[in-house]
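> Could you send the TraB protein prediction when you get a chance?

Sure thing. Input:
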Amino acid sequence: MGKDVQQQQEDRLNSGGTGMGAWLWHRAKPYTPPWIVTGAVGAAGAGAHELWGNSPWAGVGLTLAGVGLTAATWWAGKSTGQQRRLHSAITVAAGATWFTASALSGPLTGPLPDLYLMGGTSLALTWNIRQVMRSSTPEGAGSDSDKGLLEKVGLARTKLKDVKVEPNRVTVPYELPAGELTNDDINKAIPRIASALDVPTTAIRVQHDPDSARKGQFVIVPEDMLKQPTIWPGPFAPGESVAVRCGSRLRRRSDLVLPLLDAIHLLVMGMTGSGKTEGAVDLLLEILTRNDVTVWLADAAKAGQDFQPLVPALDWAALDTASAGAMVDAVQAVIPARTAWLRDHSYRAWEPAAAKTQTNPAHSCASAGACGCPGMPYLLTWFEEAAKLLRELGDDVFTGIAQEARSAGVSLVVSMQRASGYQLSTDTRASLPAAMCFGVRGDDAGFALPEEVLDAGANPAAWGNKRKGYVYLVSAGVEEDLYANPARTFWTGPPAEGSYERMARYVVEHFASVRAELDPVTGAAAEQAAGPLFTNRRARAGAASAPARPVQEQMLLDDDGQEDGDLVEMEHDGIDLSADLPPVENDAELPPAKPSTEEARELLDEMVATLASVGPGTVAVRDLKPYLEQIGRDRSWVSREMKRMAEEGRLAATGEEGVYRLIPTLAGV
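Output:
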């Protein structure tokens, strides 16, 4: 029965004259309240005249009531927009004034009827116009729903300006009330805004106006377009110079590349499983297709396990601790040599022309004409899982490289899980101007990302290692508006399918004729610093990547890693391998035991005292490197101990990391 009645009502609405009238009434109904109020005020004014028309005290009471009602309306509108507050107060004041005059003189006295018809109609129409315009947001103010949301999150009276809507992206400029809120309040409100909009906090980013402390814009990306990984599509600029915005395309929405020459030095940080290695492979696949760059890579922690397919394309792959330490020394040595070559050829800094044979007289080391010297390719030095190397060599091992390599055409990449002050010196971290931060734990993102990027909404801890390959990129040459936008590295495919090996083989073989060879200046400096570890680098990389030999076979290798033929052919006839070993003679020398902590500190004190008496007046951690075996500790332990001695007043800090001024009277205490 109810269904039949509903159907009849719908039929009436959709039929001729009656239906049209019902439709018009339905459309006009939202605009009737102002007219109803206007009619009610007129009727009330006529009735009030019958009650109080001859009472002077009623005039006083009605006047005070009108003033009080207007003030209450103004006070109640404090939390609303300025336009609504003013409009409401004017309407109440006009209605109260006419009502008072009508009650005292009568609604048909003098101009009161005309004022009622013209004024009441005008006020009712203004509210109707406001109702019509409510669906659009006026310039400089937000809608009522915007005001309610902003009030909930603690940003009342914030003005939202022209909203720009794009596919899966909404940009909302804002202007905070002057003197009440700042952009810092916006940063603190991001979690509450995300809660109100029911989106993850990483979906909301804030871009501050650099010229204002209270202006900026929200960028809201409600749907994560990076969920599905994208297979590496091939090199970005194959065969081009490394100066052509080099690196990895990191976003699906638009290409985000790492400008290596702008970044210079790069810190790569991310927890286990966050995709840090995949990002490294992504970058190396790109860089190894360029025509004027050579790559040195050190990975002593995992012996290059993740980079084996790319090793043939690397000029030097240091896959053990000894080789990695030698690479550090080599990089330190090649910087002044490369800088001198660039200076002699009139280059203020490395540029692509420096990688070519020097046929330009303007870049010649000869007194007249072109010198014809071989070019000097750019050098990328990549230290993967650098924490192990820092523990062995000290937390300041990269400080000099990072501070001096910029003008030598050398880039330093330090990759590690957590770049805390315990592992990487603050001076080194400050000298790494670019950062790629993958997923991390807790507040670790502060070790890699600037504070303003974190305030703008960057939060790599939100996904940790649950979204492999998600990363924030901060670097010179990248638009600052993109710093707080998460990106995702390309994927090399499932390991079982061998797609990574196929990609690496393509890069290694197809671009073999494109890649530059190491220049003689860099090679000579590296050989002088690292010796056989550099000259035999390709053989050592191959040996490190080969399957491990059985223990018995390893024992038959000489010091140079070559098999001793005599020992291999040695017969074991007549030797009882199950017999007990002969007893050790009393005068036999056993290997010295590792000194205890107290003994190591005493040895260190003696060495510092010796340097105090014969040295140049200062002592550095590197000065004690030849004595590490005698002390029985690594360089990082020595660095910590010397810091402790400085705190105790036994050494004086010089302002340079790892270097102290000797105090002879106290150094040996």
